[in-house]
Known about the structure:
Layout: E1 2-7, E2 11-16, H1 26-41, E3 47-52, H2 77-85, E4 91-95, E5 98-100, H3 102-109, E6 112-116, E7 120-122, E8 135-137, H4 138-144, E9 149-151, H5 155-165, H6 187-202, H7 206-220, H8 223-238, H9 242-255, E10 277-281, H10 285-296, E11 300-304, H11 308-322, E12 327-331, E13 342-345, H12 351-364, E14 370-373, H13 380-384, E15 393-398, E16 407-412, H14 418-430, E17 434-439, H15 446-463, H16 467-477, H17 483-490, H18 492-501, E18 517-518, E19 521-522, H19 526-532, H20 559-571, H21 581-601, H22 608-618, H23 628-635, H24 637-650, H25 661-668
Parallel strand pairs: 2-3, 3-4, 4-6, 5-7, 6-9, 10-11, 10-13, 11-12, 13-14, 14-15, 16-17
Antiparallel strand pairs: 1-2, 7-8, 15-16, 18-19
Helix pairs in contact: 1-2, 2-3, 6-7, 7-8, 9-22, 10-11, 15-21, 16-21, 18-19, 21-24
Amino acid sequence: xxxxxxxxxxxxxxxxxxxxxxxxxxxxxxxxxxxxxxxxxxxxxxxxxxxxxxxxxxxxxxxxxxxxxxxxxxxxxxxxxxxxxxxxxxxxxxxxxxxxxxxxxxxxxxxxxxxxxxxxxxxxxxxxxxxxxxxxxxxxxxxxxxxxxxxxxxxxxxxxxxxxxxxxxxxxxxxxxxxxxxxxxxxxxxxxxxxxxxxxxxxxxxxxxxxxxxxxxxxxxxxxxxxxxxxxxxxxxxxxxxxxxxxxxxxxxxxxxxxxxxxxxxxxxxxxxxxxxxxxxxxxxxxxxxxxxxxxxxxxxxxxxxxxxxxxxxxxxxxxxxxxxxxxxxxxxxxxxxxxxxxxxxxxxxxxxxxxxxxxxxxxxxxxxxxxxxxxxxxxxxxxxxxxxxxxxxxxxxxxxxxxxxxxxxxxxxxxxxxxxxxxxxxxxxxxxxxxxxxxxxxxxxxxxxxxxxxxxxxxxxxxxxxxxxxxxxxxxxxxxxxxxxxxxxxxxxxxxxxxxxxxxxxxxxxxxxxxxxxxxxxxxxxxxxxxxxxxxxxxxxxxxxxxxxxxxxxxxxxxxxxxxxxxxxxxxxxxxxxxxxxxxxxxxxxxxxxxxxxxxxxxxxxxxxxxxxxxxxxxxxxxxxxxxxxxxxxxxxxxxxxxxxxxxxxxxxxxxxxxxxxxxxxxxxxxxxxxxxxxxxxxxxxx
Length: 688
Ligand SMILES: CCCCCCCC/C=C\C/C=C/C(=O)SCCNC(=O)CCNC(=O)[C@H](O)C(C)(C)COP(=O)(O)OP(=O)(O)OC[C@H]1O[C@@H](n2cnc3c(N)ncnc32)[C@H](O)[C@@H]1OP(=O)(O)O
């Protein structure tokens, strides 16, 4: 766990050994503690170098141990730090790769720090619901005083020579605990302003707020008092539930890489096809973002758009985004896709158009080309059936803006080959995405769960709520945008087109159909009515809110909408009632969760972690709430079930509120923890 050798006669070299990231689990802490004691007591040793195995200094505390803090064994991190800092022999950290969180604190407990120029240091614990900070590269760390020296050469060798040069020198002013924090003018005003800003951005997350309190303590109190305060604050965070949620997200983010298909095919047994060239078809907003994402991942991309004016505009925008980097050519001819390894189709969400395109692509592209569609809801298998090689068709569902959003849903149809899925998943990794493989059904995972969420939001408007009230409740919960602001941003016409495609609205709806009912179920036509009035959201300057101009970003309440809703209620004999924030949250969130359970039971998602990763990285679900499925566990499955039963009783014509069978089975079996849910799933497939 901590290898100890003596080098150059007098330098003890301690190497942390805990792959893959040298996390500081109990055995490592113990190893370090013993090694420092050994170096201190060995009369031949005059200095110490601390490094990490395999070019990695240390990824911090072991996050897996946080799951059971009470059973943590071995010396505490602070005890290791204290032993190191009070050592009478100079300790030099040799930082390669990264020193993060407790790993950086370990380096800061050393008397000197030498970093490789490519090393990254920082305190990223905000992502884990603990004290936060940002990561910086070695050069900046040097300027900030976090490092004493940066090298391009072998870091350990440099540190060993350096350690030799400081043997016997006084250490008192090298111990950070002895150094006072430089005074700051208007310290109180500074921290109050910082707190105000952090609170407004934290959206209910405790860690950033508590961090300001800890930094204030560190800056204004004597060292040991600051440490005591930090311990108390850390305890608060650990007990908040938010830290567990964030730590769960850390692993959920990585769990998608270990994908599996119902056939038994899985990540470690399938080989990805080699992809170096790609074509993107359709250069609207999505196609442009996808082009940038692929080009940044090192692919040579041909961007195809048949409308000349759109092509010219796309070329301008994409070149600007890529700032001269990336290899992209442009064409208005589909033949340009003939020799590529991968095609990503990103045309309008229209099945007939996509079917035609897939038929064409299948005849144009060389054998072996992977055909991917960026559809957000349509049937992958129907598209596959238009092609020569249906096994080479998958969904690659990007999220806008495609070059920035972390999520990629990789959708496999019944005929998609494991190699095709492996290829799309590997591409996702190359693009830096959180990729999750999911099965084929309308809306896949993300949009399928969005549907009941939107539906509840519309129903709440019918019953007396306003967009402002619904959005405020959701934003207070932690979403960056409430559901109405979000649909204004993405465009109300997107859902309208999908509902037309589904025959729920538009000319295909049979005459005499009741306004607020479809197939015997409650239906709200509010979204359709808005679109019929040209209210598409930000793009038209009017939606659920009012904007200064088309494309405007600042939402204002719209008196027109208030009247519109009142008239709508009168027309439909609806009586507005006061709606409480709690009802908004329960109906909107429980509806999402309920659909999540159905998706799990249907085998469309392989695990609750996959669903949560999709919601956190694609739909703005707050990380400190862990994703909808984790949140359900935190609220209590029995309470979620009771809520759904209550709302379904009140709204029996809303099938999405009828509790899913999996949720019922889980509650009946005593609400097991989330990692055991899969055992209760129909046709359960083993977890990897
Ligand atoms: C009431 C008082 C309670 C007392 C408790 C005291 C505890 C001490 C509390 C606070 C002090 C210190 C806190 C911390 O240090 S928290 C950890 C801070 N570190 C981080 O946040 C870094 C997290 N890791 C990363 O960002 C990346 O993993 C990376 C940059 C280190 C490496 O990236 P990459 O090469 O892309 O690899 P992966 O991300 O895929 O990771 C590989 C593998 O390793 C696992 N892993 C990574 N970091 C950790 C870790 N710190 N602990 C445990 N495991 C870690 C990761 O999960 C991957 O494994 P897989 O999930 O099985 O795929």
